[in-house]
Write a structure and sequence with these properties.
Chain C: It holds the Pfam family BPD_transp_1_N. Chain C: Keywords: Cell membrane, Membrane, Transmembrane, Transmembrane helix, Transport. Chain C: InterPro entries: BPD_transp_1_N, MetI-like, MetI-like_sf. Chain C: It is a multi-pass membrane protein. The complex is a heteropentamer of chains A (331), B (306), C (316), D (335) and E (521). Chain B is mainly α. Chain B has a single domain, classed as MetI-like (MetI-like fold). Chain B starts with a helix and ends in an 8-residue tail after the last helix. Chain C is 79% helix and 0% strand. In chain E, α9 runs antiparallel to α11. Chain E is globular, with a radius of gyration of 23 Å. Classes of the chains: A alpha/beta (331), B mainly alpha (306), C mainly alpha (316), D alpha/beta (335), E alpha+beta (521). At the A-D interface, α5, α6, α7, α8 and α9 of A face α8, α9, α10 and α11 of D. Bound molecules: adenosine-5'-triphosphate (2 copies) and magnesium ion (2 copies). The site of one adenosine-5'-triphosphate has 17 residues of chain D, from β1, β2 and α1.
Chain lengths: 331, 306, 316, 335, 521
């Protein structure tokens, strides 16, 4: 799968939100939500992004979808930089890039029935004209996401969380997308439902050849679905690696801390496992510390970490790490 | 919504459609349960509003007089079989005038609320959705208007535009606009942030479609409640204007005008002012109770809860 | 906080500016020529023209507006056409009358409304709540003048315990002032009490169901502290907004109350000036009223900051 | 084991709503020993929070009402005292502390952290304002909040989620509660902060011999921290036992399904997960049979038509399940 | 008696005699002796358009409420409505020389101490000619006044004006020239200086007015310390205040409250003015060919369709008077020939059919937007509907009412005619073609014969002849041409508490009060 051409390349993406103050709304500083992030996603692959709250996962996704206009950087989709395309030009690609939201409730218009939600998404395409075609497509979509057709006449509040999320997926699929950004699509769901949805994602990818950017904060979930994983901290990518390598070969101290913080249901191992409990909290992206963003919480931090931001360097086997202490983790 | 069921019907079978119908019936039942679940007051108010509406629609059937028909020789008489509530100073049948007053008051309330709704919702939607300088300007102007009490605003405008039903309703409507704009603006601001608006944009929906397909329908419950409450307020303002002698001109049987005119006789024939006053009070109160009930019944937050 | 206050003040200034344009527009759109009205229907055309020039009516609208605003800023409101008096003097007489009725009404209504609202929220669904809700609904549904007429009918005509009407300034004779102000203040306060009580009830119910109240309960805090220290304080912001909004209601209602109780206040002069097309008085009256409301709303905005640390401490 | 600190017997809490009666908690029994960590797990909406609120008698009423059962805390039946009673108010906060899920909204937004803390301390201890403040500062230090003195003067919105949750813990700590009930204490927090908070709680349990009830749907969390686990489904307890038994040898199909649904950190991720199909039942109209039957992969024809199964003991020890069938621990349970 | 007069003029006013027509139900016991001091509390409300300007003093030469206590007129009406000298000793018309010569009474001083001299009177008259309200109607022939000596004023006329004495009763208030020279018109507004028994102390518009006694009143010692007038927005309240004793005297224009007060048993002196106050009149737009009202038959039909008795009974509760013209039968100008189209629906319908309006037509009713007028209009509209005429009700705001008096778009204006001036002065200023301001000046089709007749009557050399000619005018106006139809006529009622004695409050004329002899006890 590594041989496929990259569908999306993100290069040096920056998204600074200005913070305004005072009467004249003067910008007095920026929230560096995404700061120099680069990665690429191959066709048919799933790229996972993990990180703690506020580290810029959603913002990265939204920049790719052009919901936000990035401050700087390139987003090369299908060989074309879409980050600076004018809105009118971008229209052609609009429907190929879709988003699945975290909150399945908020992402559905409570006043629209299931069929009108789908109809809206189908009709926008202008490919389907007659009622018959629309209905056929609708049925297709519903069965694709394993929803019973009964549901067509219901309203979102009459659906369960899992059904809502499936409907969200169906709506995205109605646009025939190539790339779907999934923004924590399972975080709000119960474990059993979460598993159903994850399975669905995987099946759809196989059947339709979709490419996902899968955002989550649960490492286990991301590892399960993604081929490659990017770990973000405070607006920066600190490590990018194949998911198979995650448990055994992760090298960034932050990734390790994350891994150890995730409790597992493996009873005997869990009882034995030594935990790295990080001190302190994630600093605010408004005044990120100089140097490596992780250094205030890192136990390996040295002087250089405090002054200079380490670069994200390839350490072989498609494994990129941004740390001066790459992988000395003995414990 | 019924068309929808029919149109999409072929993707579902008969049974599902029946189920959907049943569910909607349940929803309607739920709506009424909440509407009436507020105790006897709510029920009485709802019945009263219905009665007032019926009376307003069918007033010619309820009485054999016209509201202007006089019997000068029979002026200022108390209740009698011919005149259920007695007669006024020109020998007009008080009951008839009150009955026609319902028609008048309700129509002026409805008409002015329609004005307020149309103008207010349009401005509120535009200001909320497009925001920016335009939105800010609209809101500041609304602040400015809000700083003038509606009655005073209506008074000034009535002096300019005169006291025809049309202009009075427009005037009262205008004075209610900021209320709508503010609420709709606030709603749109918060609705705009909802993911489904983003989703609609992602599937390539245009601004206006989003505005009218997603934002406006989601404001409906608020609009309906405001409208119901607005009718009562409009009637109240109209009566206030009439009391100040600036509203609708006599002899139109507006309750406000009747109170204004009847007040002269409060000592000798109190019924002239009391009856229209009581009716006015009942109508306004029941409208506001029904509005309250609607607010609860339409509140999506309360759906499924309670 | 200071930036917040300055921002609110700037907004208020803009609002006042907009209102001054509106008040000025009254003169422009109302039918009739003020100069002609001032001189009477028999005056010669030249005289009218001279007065028009004196009143700046012959100048372009913008110049007129600027001159008017300049005058107002200097405290020179112009002269009433009908009363033949300087308007500032008239207003100095009348505004205190409205205020001495309106302010007590507001100060009675606000605490009373809050108390009633809190009681019915705490006793939600109980008979006491139902009675209070019924009463507030009824009081809100009664037009002010109707309350006035009824209370006159009951207290003055039937029971003969209160005066029919009239006004005495508190500085002149405080006892008489109180005696005469009881009914008008009551009529003004009643719908306010109801409005504030309703708002309080709604917000208290919201507030009582909030998570932090559950926390307070789970920590075993006494009910009184929960209701007043935690729930009410949190519910206070929308309540204050409503109290601020009531100022409009007071002033709007003063038109009617002053008519019922024959008080020659701001409301009366507005009504009669509109009737007699004394536009300059109307302009000033509307401007003063909106100044009062804007000022109160500014106070309310600042109170938000005092009550809510999120506003006070945020840098914006 | 040790002394039973809290024993809940056959607790029933029902919400009377327009949509019908919702039996949110339908006859659950459990107990907590002194110094023990007990976990309550289950899917969303199965009645975990309501059961804990019922213990504190803080269920929103109306529409909620405790319709039956006993809550014996240190030998005293709390239900007898009544929700509004003085005793109950003395117990709340002082002897049973409760920490809620949403640290964002659980503190009064318009009062400083210090004054809230001091108010609770003064409520339960006869101390002056100043002393209460000092105790507050000390407890904040005890829950490892840096600059405690400064933080006391902060408003909740100035603090991060983890910090707020620490303050909630500090309140229970200051009053030296014997039992702390935590309702999803870490769900809203980041993984690294979650770990910090759990460490803190466990330290308190160890040091102060406090008992802890953890309500959660995070199975990993209970695996690591809990002594005993109760699994809830649709208002009922379906399986209970010591953690080792439940996690390694689950016997109820629901527990098995739950455990199978969890994506594992180490497992080969090319395989699909094994979720429980379907969704939990609507509590307003429950069937007159085993509630799990429609989703049960092992469900047999034999289960149909039978009344809801009673809890029964399996495997000796304290392992109970509410199921007609005997599903061995190797049958479909993979870890 | 004033010598050399061809017209009867009374030399001095006698308030006692004016009480003859008053209807007095309770009077003070004769045994009480007058005592000085005390304040008379008067209450009232303003409801007519003139009243708006009446209480709120607008200009020294305008009808001002203060004038009735503070200002006085050169002449005033006797109880029968004929002019009598007041500030004058005598007045003598001379048709041949086109002059009226007046002798000013001696010893009259203004409240500022300045003397009332011939020069002051002449200045007042000339000032009125220039600036006065209605001057263009009443003073149209007046050229100027000159003081020939300290007591004599000679008024010159461009053509003869027999009704000049009537005009002097109406609106020409005499103010102090000295005060005017000092403060101008505005100064007099703020601080009116007249010859009346009371001096304005302070006035708050819309609230009240306090007047102190004039210590050097020319008619004698003023007994009251002062009067305090309270303005009531609502007349009903004024009446209640009277009952409650908050005020001691009140005058009412609203018949509903008169009715309730007349029935009251509490002891009040209830007095009806000797002179009628208002005539409620329908004026037809008769000069427009397209308007059905331009047809005489239509006007008569409408006139026949009005049941004036019913109007009197309902709208005035019987306190009004049914009459056919702008005066009542005791007036010297009353013409018995005028029948005023008595109520007869059959005749009305027949006339309408004759005029070609078998099915009626629709027209407009214009009226001032006050309760009494709108009731009247509503009643009239209802009566017209009985002969098939649909009348659209068009109330007019007080402020714009004057714009309608001269001419209204179409149909009928219901107008309230002030009656104190007597019929003749009304005819003289209404039914001529070349006036610059006045009722119906752009709406009445006045035949040349009528115009000539009025002018002839106006300039009649003797009052007897004038009376004869004006009766003819009345016949022309009400009967022959039917330009206007009198609906009903009203007098005003005043109510004075029994504690107040000798108050000549509104006994002769609406709002006229000789309070200088009144005392409170
Ligand atoms: N529109 C915006 N304006 C200003 N700041 C923003 C905006 N959107 C996001 N941010 C800030 O950018 C940072 C990154 O936000 P983002 O939503 O991308 O985080 P996230 O990783 O998705 O977090 P979560 O797990 O909570 O969803 C946050 O600090 C947030 O406050
Ligand atoms: N105030 C209430 N009114 C009506 N029903 C309620 C109320 N509170 C809870 N319920 C119902 O009780 C049931 C149990 O709710 P509970 O909050 O205990 O679930 P939970 O297990 O804590 O779920 P979660 O994991 O989502 O917190 C739910 O189905 C809910 O619908
Ligand atoms: Mg996010
Ligand atoms: Mg819960």
């Amino acid at each position: 799968m590594n041989e496929k051409k990259p569908l999306l390349q993100v290069e040096g993406l920056k998204m600074y939100f200005p913070l305004k103050k005072g009467l004249l709304s003067r910008t007095y500083c920026h929230v560096k939500a995404v700061d120099d992030v680069s990665f690429e996603v191959r066709e048919g692959e799933t790229f996972g992004i993990v990180g703690e709250s506020g580290c810029g996962k959603t913002t990265t996704g939204k920049c790719i979808l052009r919901i936000h206009d990035p401050t700087d950087g390139k987003i090369i989709y299908n060989g074309r930089d879409i980050s600076k395309l004018p809105k009118s030009k971008f229209k052609e690609n609009r429907r190929e890039l879709q988003l699945i939201f975290q909150d399945p409730y908020e992402s559905l218009d409570p006043r629209q029935s299931v069929c009108s939600i789908l109809e809206e998404a189908i009709v926008c395409d202008r490919k389907f004209h007659t009622k018959e075609e629309i209905k056929k497509r609708m049925r297709e979509l519903l069965s694709l996401v394993e929803l019973h057709q009964d549901i067509a006449l219901r309203y979102p509040h009459e659906l369960s969380g899992g059904q809502r999320q499936r409907l969200g997926v169906a709506r995205a699929l109605a646009c025939n997308p190539k790339l779907i950004v999934c923004d924590e699509p399972v975080s709000a769901l119960d474990v059993s439902i979460q598993a159903q949805i994850i399975n669905l994602f995987r099946r759809l990818q196989e059947e339709l050849g979709l490419t996902y950017i899968f955002v989550a904060h649960d490492l286990a979930v991301v590892r399960h679905i993604a081929g490659r994983i990017g770990v973000m901290y405070l607006g920066r990518m600190v490590e990018i690696l194949d998911s198979d390598d995650l448990f055994e070969n992760s090298r960034h101290p932050y990734t390790k801390a994350l891994l150890s913080a995730v409790p597992t249901t493996d009873y005997y191992r869990e009882k034995r496992r030594e935990r790295i409990v990080l001190e302190g909290e994630v600093p605010s992206p408004i005044n990120a510390p100089p140097g490596c963003p992780f250094h205030p919480r890192c136990r390996y931090a040295t002087d250089i970490c405090r002054t200079t931001m380490p670069e994200l360097l390839d350490r072989g086997r498609n494994h990129l790490v941004a740390c001066y202490h790459d992988g000395p983790c003995e414990s | 919504m019924d068309n929808e069921i029919r149109e999409i019907s072929c993707i579902t079978d008969e049974e599902t459609r029946l189920k959907a119908k049943k569910r909607r019936k349940q929803n309607i039942r739920y709506f009424f349960t909440v509407l009436f679940g507020r105790g006897i007051l709510a029920k009485i108010s709802f019945v009263l509003v219905c009665i007032f509406i019926l009376v307003a629609v069918f007033c010619p059937l309820l009485t054999s007089y016209t509201p202007f028909q006089q019997e000068l020789s029979n002026a200022l008489k108390g209740a009698s079989p011919q005149h259920l509530l007695g007669t006024d100073n020109l020998g007009r049948d008080l009951f008839t005038r009150i009955v026609y007053g319902a028609r008048f008051s309700l129509s002026i309330g409805l008409l002015s609320s329609v004005w307020a709704l149309v103008i207010g919702v349009a401005l509120g939607l535009a200001a909320g959705y497009f925001g920016g300088i335009f939105g800010g300007l609209v809101m500041r102007l609304m602040d400015a208007q809000l700083s003038i009490p509606p009655l005073i605003l209506a008074l000034c405008l009535a002096a300019v535009f005169g006291g025809a039903v049309f202009s009075i309703s427009l005037i009262i409507g205008i004075s209610a606009v900021p209320g709508y704009v503010r609420v709709i603006y606030g709603q749109v601001l918060s609705l705009r942030e909802y993911d489904y608006v983003e989703a609609a944009r992602l599937i390539g929906q245009g601004n206006f479609k989003i505005l009218f397909k997603h934002l406006l329908p989601n404001c409906f419950p608020t609009i309906i409640v405001m409208f119901t409450m607005g009718v009562g307020t409009a009637i109240m303002i109209e009566s206030g204007l009439a009391y100040l002698g600036i509203g609708i001109k006599a002899p139109t049987p507006s309750w406000g005008v009747m109170i204004f005119e009847g007040y002269k006789y409060i000592f000798s024939s109190p019924h002239l002012a009391l009856w229209p006053g009581i009716m006015l009070m009942l109508l306004i109160i029941s409208l506001s109770v029904v509005g309250d009930g609607l607010r609860d019944a339409l509140d999506p937050k309360l759906r499924g809860k309670l | 906080m200071s930036a917040y206050i300055v921002k609110r003040i700037l907004i208020s200034i803009f609002v006042v500016f907009a209102v001054s344009i509106f008040s000025f527009m009254i003169l422009q759109i109302m039918p009739g020529d003020p100069a002609r009205l001032a001189l009477g229907y028999e005056a010669s055309e030249e005289d009218v023209q001279t007065l028009r020039e004196k009143m700046n009516l012959d100048k372009p609208v913008v110049t007129q507006y600027i001159l008017w605003v300049k005058g107002v800023a200097r405290g020179d409101f112009g002269q009433s056409v009908i009363y033949k008096q300087p308007i500032d003097k008239m207003m100095a007489e009348r505004v205190p009358r409205t205020l001495t009725l309106g302010i007590p009404a507001l100060f009675i209504a606000a605490p009373l409304g809050i108390v009633v609202g809190v009681i019915s929220a705490v006793r939600r669904g109980k008979p006491l709540d139902q009675i209070l809700t019924f009463l507030t609904t009824v009081s809100m549904g009664m037009p002010v003048f109707w309350t006035g007429i009824l209370s006159v009918f009951i207290f003055s005509v039937e029971l003969k315990i209160l005066p029919l009407q009239g006004y005495v300034s508190p500085s002149q004779d405080f006892g008489q002032y109180v005696y005469k102000a009881i009914l008008p203040v009551f009529c003004m306060a009643l719908p306010m009490i109801a409005g504030i009580a309703r708002q309080t009830r709604t917000n208290m119910l919201d507030s009582i169901n909030q998570d932090h109240i559950r926390t307070a309960r789970a920590n075993g805090l006494p009910e009184r502290s929960i209701i007043f220290r935690h729930a009410l304080k949190n519910a206070m912001i929308p309540i204050i907004t409503v109290i601020g909004m009531q100022v409009r209601v007071v002033i709007g209602g003063s038109l009617l109350v002053e008519k019922v109780f024959n008080v020659a206040g701001l409301g009366t002069i507005l009504t009669s000036s509109i009737n007699t097309r004394d536009y300059i008085v109307v302009m000033v009256g509307v401007l003063i009223i909106s100044l009062i409301t804007v000022a109160v709303n500014l106070v309310v905005d600042i109170l938000y900051g005092v009550i809510d640390p999120r506003i006070r401490l945020s840098r914006r | 084991m040790g002394n039973k600190l809290l024993e809940v017997k056959n607790l029933k809490t029902t919400f009377f709503t327009v949509n019908g009666e919702i039996k949110a908690v339908d006859g659950i029994s459990y107990y907590v020993d002194e110094g023990e960590v007990v976990a309550l797990v289950g899917e969303s909406g199965c009645g975990k929070s309501v059961s804990q609120l019922s213990v504190m008698q803080l269920v929103q009423s109306p529409p909620g009402k405790i319709v039956g059962g006993e809550i014996v805390f240190q030998g005293q039946d709390l239900l007898q005292c009544g929700a509004q009673s003085k005793e109950m108010r003395e117990i709340r906060g002082a002897r049973i502390g409760m920490i809620f899920q949403e640290p964002m909204t659980s503190l009064d937004p318009v009062q400083t952290v210090g004054s809230q803390l001091a108010e609770v301390i003064r409520r339960h201890k006869k101390v002056s304002k100043k002393q209460a403040w000092e105790i507050g500062v000390k407890t904040l230090e005890a829950v490892s909040i840096p600059d405690a003195r400064v933080r006391m003067k902060n408003y909740p919105f100035e603090l991060s989620g983890g910090m707020r949750q620490r303050i909630m813990i500090a309140i229970t700590l200051a009053c030296q509660s014997q039992l702390i009930i935590t309702d999803e204490p870490t769900t809203a927090l980041d993984v690294t902060i979650q770990a910090q908070i759990m460490e803190l709680l466990m330290r308190l349990v160890r040091e102060n011999k406090t008992s802890l009830v953890v309500v959660t749907h995070n199975l990993g969390l209970v695996t690591r921290h809990a002594d005993r686990i109760y699994v809830m489904y649709a208002g009922k307890i379906v399986e209970s036992g010591v953690t080792e038994d439940i996690i390694t040898k689950p016997r109820h199909p629901y527990t098995i399904g739950l455990l199978n649904s969890v994506p594992k950190l180490r497992r080969d991720c090319s395989e699909d997960l094994n979720p429980i199909e379907g969704a939990p039942p609507d509590l307003a109209n429950l069937p007159n049979e085993c509630y799990f039957l429609p989703r049960c992969p092992y469900g047999k024809q034999a289960c149909k038509g039978k009344k809801y199964p009673d809890l029964r003991q399996v495997d000796g020890q304290e392992h109970f399940i509410a199921c007609f069938m005997d599903i061995g621990n190797d049958e479909g349970c993979t870890i | 008696a004033c010598g050399g007069s061809t017209k009867n003029t009374t030399t001095s006013a006698s308030p006692e005699s004016s009480n003859t027509a008053a209807m007095t139900e309770a009077s003070a016991p004769a045994t009480l002796t007058p005592t000085a001091g005390g304040i008379l509390e008067i209450g009232g409300s303003a409801i007519l358009p003139t009243d708006v300007t009446w209480f709120k003093v607008r200009g020294i030469m305008e009808v001002a409420f203060a004038g009735l206590w503070g200002y006085e007129t050169l002449m005033r009406y006797s109880a029968t409505g004929t002019p009598e000298c007041f500030l004058l000793d005598s007045i003598t018309p001379d048709a041949g020389a086109l002059t009226w010569t007046m002798k000013v009474k001696d010893g009259i001083t203004f409240s500022d101490g300045s003397k009332l001299t011939a020069e002051v009177v002449a200045w007042n008259l000339n000032y009125y000619k220039e600036n006065g309200i209605l001057a263009s109607s009443f003073f149209s022939n007046f050229v100027n006044a000159e003081a020939t000596d300290s007591k004599t004023v000679v008024c010159h006329f461009s053509s003869w004006e027999i009704l000049f004495d009537y005009y002097l009763c109406r609106t020409v208030l005499i103010a102090s020239k000295e005060a005017f020279d000092k403060g101008g018109a505005d100064g007099l507004v703020a601080n009116p200086i007249g010859t009346g028994p009371f001096v304005l102390k302070n006035m708050t518009p819309d609230v009240d007015m306090t007047m102190d006694k004039n210590p050097s009143y020319w008619q004698g010692q003023v007994l009251l310390d002062g009067v305090h007038y309270t303005y009531y927005a609502d007349e009903l309240v004024a009446m209640e205040a009277l009952k409650a004793g908050e005020i001691t005297a009140a005058m009412s224009d609203s018949y509903s409250s008169i009715d309730s007060l007349m029935k009251e048993t509490i002891s009040l002196t209830k007095t009806q003015t000797a002179l009628p106050s208002y005539a409620y009149t329908m004026c037809f737009k008769s000069n427009d060919q397209n308007d059905p009202c331009s047809n005489l038959d239509v006007r008569k039909a409408i006139s026949y369709a009005i049941d004036t008795q019913a109007l009197v009974d309902t709208l005035t509760y019987g306190y009004g008077v049914k009459t056919t013209q702008w005066c009542m039968s005791n007036n010297e100008y009353y013409s018995p020939d005028v029948t005023g189209q008595p109520y007869n629906l059959e005749t009305a319908k027949k006339l309408l059919a004759d005029a070609g309006y078998t099915d009626g037509f629709s027209t407009k009713l214009w009226y001032l937007n006050i309760p009494q007028m709108s009731d009247t209009a509503a009643a009239v509209a209802e009566m017209l509907s009985k002969i098939g005429i649909t009348a659209d009700l068009n109330p007019i705001d007080a402020a714009s009412y004057v714009n309608y008096i001269g001419g209204w778009d179409s149909g009928i204006l219901i107008h309230t005619m002030g009656m104190e001036g007597g019929a003749a002065s009304q005819y003289a200023t209404t039914f001529v073609n070349d006036i610059s301001f006045g009722l119906g000046m752009n709406a009445f089709a006045i035949p040349d014969s009528l115009d000539a007749l009025v002018k002839q009557a106006k300039s009649a050399a003797s009052s007897d002849e004038a009376v004869k000619l004006f009766k003819k005018v009345a016949y022309d106006v009400f009967e022959d041409q039917c330009l206007v139809k009198v609906l009903y006529c009203t007098t005003s009622y005043s109510f004075v508490s029994d504690k107040v004695h000798d108050a000549d409050y509104c006994t002769v004329q609406n709002r006229r009060c000789d309070l200088w002899k009144a005392w409170v006890g």
